[in-house]
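Tutorial handout. Part one gives the primary structure; part two gives the three-dimensional structure as C-alpha cells.
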Amino acid sequence: QLQLVESGGGLVQPGGSLRLSCAASGFTLDDYAIGWFRQAPGKEREGVSCISRNGGSTNYADSVKGRFTISRDYAKNTVYLQMNSLKPEDTAIYYCAARYPGCVPRPGDYYYWGQGTQVTVSS
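Part two.
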C-alpha cells in the first residue's frame, strides 16, 4: 500500500521552530517531486514548498521564504520541512504530497497525500 506519513507537528510559541517529516511506505520518494501544503480552518489548501526529484530545485510560498527550508534524505526515504521563526499565521494542518514528474502549484495535481500533521503557533 502506497502511503505518506507526516510527523513533527505540535504546539510552539511564536518565533519557535519545528521540523516536519514526510516518510513514505510502499514506494520510494526518489521518483517523485514532493510538496508541502497547509490548510487553516475556513481556508483553502495552499502550497508551502516543493522539492524536485533530484533535490536540485526548490520553491517556497512568499509567506514562508527565508523561514522554511525543504530538504530530502534519499537514504531515509523522507522529506523534511524545517520551519523557523514561526508566526501565528502559520497555524494549520500541514500535508505532504507526491507527484511525477515535477513540482506544480495546484494541490489537485498531486497523486499521493498524507493524513496531515497539526502545527499550532501560539503563546
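Part three, for discussion. The radius of gyration is 13 Å. The chain has a mean pLDDT of 96.
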